[in-house]
Amino acid sequence: MGLMKLCSLLVLTATALLADVTGKWTASFETEIGTQNYTYDFKQTGDKLTGTAKSNLGSGVITEGSVKGDDITFVEILNFQDQEIRITYKGKISGDEIKFTRQVADVATEELVAKRVK
Q1: Are 78 and 61 in contact (CB under 8 A)?
Q2: pLDDT of 54-87, one tens digit each?
Q3: Rg (CA), the chain
Q4: 81 beta partners
Q5: Is 70 domain-assigned?
Q6: Is 54 part of any domain?
Q7: Which of 4, 22, 42, 48 has the maximal Cβ count within 10 Å?
Q8: Which residues of 53-84 are buried (b: 16+ CB within 10 A; e: fewer)?
Protein backbone atom coordinates (compact mmCIF):
# COMPACT_ATOMS: atom_id res chain seq x y z
CA MET A 1 0.00 0.00 0.00
CA GLY A 2 1.37 3.38 -0.97
CA LEU A 3 2.00 6.12 1.58
CA MET A 4 -0.80 8.30 0.15
CA LYS A 5 -3.33 5.46 0.39
CA LEU A 6 -2.26 4.72 3.96
CA CYS A 7 -2.60 8.40 4.94
CA SER A 8 -6.05 8.60 3.33
CA LEU A 9 -7.14 5.45 5.18
CA LEU A 10 -5.93 6.85 8.51
CA VAL A 11 -7.78 10.15 7.97
CA LEU A 12 -11.01 8.32 7.06
CA THR A 13 -10.68 6.04 10.10
CA ALA A 14 -10.06 8.99 12.45
CA THR A 15 -13.05 10.87 10.99
CA ALA A 16 -15.31 7.84 11.40
CA LEU A 17 -14.33 7.53 15.07
CA LEU A 18 -15.33 11.13 15.83
CA ALA A 19 -19.03 11.29 16.71
CA ASP A 20 -20.98 14.22 15.28
CA VAL A 21 -23.56 15.60 17.71
CA THR A 22 -24.48 18.69 15.66
CA GLY A 23 -28.22 19.34 15.87
CA LYS A 24 -31.04 19.36 18.40
CA TRP A 25 -31.23 16.97 21.36
CA THR A 26 -33.89 16.79 24.09
CA ALA A 27 -33.98 15.48 27.63
CA SER A 28 -36.54 15.33 30.43
CA PHE A 29 -35.38 14.38 33.92
CA GLU A 30 -36.24 14.74 37.58
CA THR A 31 -34.26 17.05 39.86
CA GLU A 32 -34.56 18.32 43.41
CA ILE A 33 -36.59 21.26 42.10
CA GLY A 34 -38.88 19.25 39.81
CA THR A 35 -38.91 18.00 36.23
CA GLN A 36 -36.48 19.70 33.87
CA ASN A 37 -37.23 19.71 30.13
CA TYR A 38 -34.18 20.61 28.05
CA THR A 39 -33.45 21.25 24.39
CA TYR A 40 -29.77 21.33 23.50
CA ASP A 41 -28.71 22.84 20.17
CA PHE A 42 -25.18 21.58 19.55
CA LYS A 43 -22.73 22.80 16.91
CA GLN A 44 -19.64 20.65 16.51
CA THR A 45 -16.57 21.63 14.50
CA GLY A 46 -13.93 18.90 14.70
CA ASP A 47 -13.69 18.10 18.39
CA LYS A 48 -14.93 21.56 19.51
CA LEU A 49 -18.52 21.89 20.77
CA THR A 50 -20.61 25.06 21.15
CA GLY A 51 -24.31 25.83 21.22
CA THR A 52 -27.21 26.61 23.53
CA ALA A 53 -29.22 24.85 26.21
CA LYS A 54 -32.85 25.84 26.87
CA SER A 55 -34.99 24.59 29.73
CA ASN A 56 -38.14 25.50 31.57
CA LEU A 57 -35.86 27.53 33.91
CA GLY A 58 -34.18 29.60 31.20
CA SER A 59 -31.50 29.37 28.57
CA GLY A 60 -27.76 29.10 28.66
CA VAL A 61 -24.71 29.17 26.47
CA ILE A 62 -22.57 26.06 25.96
CA THR A 63 -18.87 26.73 26.54
CA GLU A 64 -15.69 24.69 27.04
CA GLY A 65 -17.21 21.91 24.91
CA SER A 66 -15.42 18.99 23.32
CA VAL A 67 -16.19 15.67 21.67
CA LYS A 68 -13.45 13.04 21.71
CA GLY A 69 -14.47 9.62 20.43
CA ASP A 70 -17.69 8.84 22.28
CA ASP A 71 -16.89 11.22 25.18
CA ILE A 72 -18.61 14.61 25.36
CA THR A 73 -18.03 17.39 27.87
CA PHE A 74 -19.24 20.97 28.14
CA VAL A 75 -20.27 23.70 30.53
CA GLU A 76 -23.69 25.34 30.45
CA ILE A 77 -23.81 28.86 31.85
CA LEU A 78 -27.46 29.18 32.90
CA ASN A 79 -28.90 32.61 33.67
CA PHE A 80 -31.45 31.91 36.44
CA GLN A 81 -33.08 34.69 38.47
CA ASP A 82 -30.37 37.16 37.43
CA GLN A 83 -27.58 34.80 38.51
CA GLU A 84 -25.20 32.78 36.37
CA ILE A 85 -25.09 29.12 37.34
CA ARG A 86 -22.26 26.91 36.04
CA ILE A 87 -23.43 23.40 35.09
CA THR A 88 -20.71 20.93 34.06
CA TYR A 89 -21.69 17.99 31.82
CA LYS A 90 -19.80 14.75 31.12
CA GLY A 91 -21.32 12.11 28.89
CA LYS A 92 -21.04 9.08 26.62
CA ILE A 93 -22.45 9.15 23.10
CA SER A 94 -24.20 6.01 21.88
CA GLY A 95 -25.79 6.58 18.49
CA ASP A 96 -28.75 8.91 18.99
CA GLU A 97 -28.47 8.96 22.80
CA ILE A 98 -26.09 10.62 25.21
CA LYS A 99 -25.95 9.54 28.85
CA PHE A 100 -24.91 12.54 30.92
CA THR A 101 -23.87 13.24 34.46
CA ARG A 102 -24.09 16.91 35.29
CA GLN A 103 -22.83 18.90 38.25
CA VAL A 104 -25.00 21.93 39.05
CA ALA A 105 -22.65 24.42 40.71
CA ASP A 106 -21.70 22.85 44.05
CA VAL A 107 -25.33 22.00 44.79
CA ALA A 108 -26.38 18.80 42.98
CA THR A 109 -25.26 15.95 40.73
CA GLU A 110 -27.87 14.70 38.24
CA GLU A 111 -28.11 11.89 35.66
CA LEU A 112 -29.97 12.29 32.38
CA VAL A 113 -30.28 10.89 28.86
CA ALA A 114 -30.51 13.23 25.87
CA LYS A 115 -31.97 11.98 22.59
CA ARG A 116 -31.34 13.34 19.11
CA VAL A 117 -34.32 15.07 17.48
CA LYS A 118 -34.86 13.53 14.05
Answers
A1: no
A2: 999 889 999 999 999 999 999 999 988 888 999 9
A3: 16
A4: none
A5: yes
A6: yes
A7: 42
A8: bebebebbebeebebeeeebebbbebeeeeee
